[in-house]
Amino acid sequence: MIKKRIIPCLDVKDGRVVKGIQFKGLRDIGDPVDLAMYYNEAGADELVFLDISKTERGHALTLDIIQQTAEQLFIPLTVGGGIASLDDISDLLKHGADKVSLNSAALNNPELIRQASEKFGRQCICIAIDSQYDPKLDDYFCCTHGGKKRTDKRVYDWVQEVESLGAGELLVTSMDFDGMKQGFDLKHLNGIAERVNIPIIASGGGGKARHFTELFTQTPVSAGLAASILHDKETTVHEIKQELENGGVPVRWP
Asked: Which of 53, 109, 116, 230 has its CA 20 to 30 A from that of 208?
């Protein structure tokens, strides 16, 4: 049976790791290199580095910080945030990223997914989706620019499109659940899983170790992303994995 993955997420703004609630009220967490070292030793399966300052303002890729972070890791590193071209992807892979996460650029130019997949391999291409529920339309829509701008693209249509274009993985953040620590959006994740055959990383809502057991026993997603509960030491990667193992969910131990 395929082992489930626990992935800490570093949201990096101006060289510092930050975290908010529903993409707002950001507070300083610490240095990304120090946190990368900590999670590498703590048993994380992978690490996600999202440069949200580039996403917001479009500044140059912080390749130096990414390289310093990658040098501390013996686990896969996914980097996202404002990636706009094949050259950006190439630079990130050369500086230590194992995978890249595309969001706004892919929505603006879906052909970039196909081009990137053909050039670098689909295993390198993760499509990040910031999903927001519209109760009036009873549907989910993609957001861009760090969750600040909602598009007309429906999530369930988009996930099928990106898979057909060559995406190798999805990183789905349920914006309405993000930072709330009340559990993952299981219904939405199952709706996505019914439509695609590529791995899904679930993000948004994990507040306790048991929420990850619920995630993996009630949906077929491959991985769970966590940020504030790990940064604030409310739980640890080890505790989450122990909870999963006790619940019969296969995990990978260091």
From this structure: 53
Q: Which residue has the tokens 């929505």?
A: 107
Domains of the chain, start order: 1-102 (3.20.20.70), 112-202 (3.20.20.70)
Give per-residue pLDDT as tens, 105-133.
999 999 999 999 999 999 999 999 999 99
- Contact of 208 with 181, CB cutoff 8 Å: yes
Residue found by looking up tokens 């992807």 in the block: 89
Per the annotation, the verdict on 51 as an active-site residue is no
Return the SS3 of 197: coil
Phi and psi at 193, nearest 5°, equal: -60, -30
Is there a catalytic annotation at residue 11? yes
Phi (first) and psi of residue 90, to 5 degrees: -60, -45
State the DSSP code for 46.
-
Residue of 11, 45, 88, 178 marked active site:
11
DSSP conformation letters of 63-82: HHHHHHHHHT-SS-EEEESS
DSSP H helices in the chain? 32-42, 52-57, 63-71, 86-94, 104-108, 111-120, 155-165, 186-193, 209-218, 228-231, 237-246
Top-ranked range on mean pLDDT: pick from 58-67, 92-101, 176-185: 92-101
Q: Is the separation of the CB atoms in 49 and 69 below 8 Å? A: yes
Tell the residue number behind the tokens 């945030």, with chain if given: 81
Catalytic residue among 45, 51, 88, 130: 130
How are the residues of the chain apportioned to helix, strand and coil, as percentages rounded to the nearest 5? Answer: 40, 30, 35
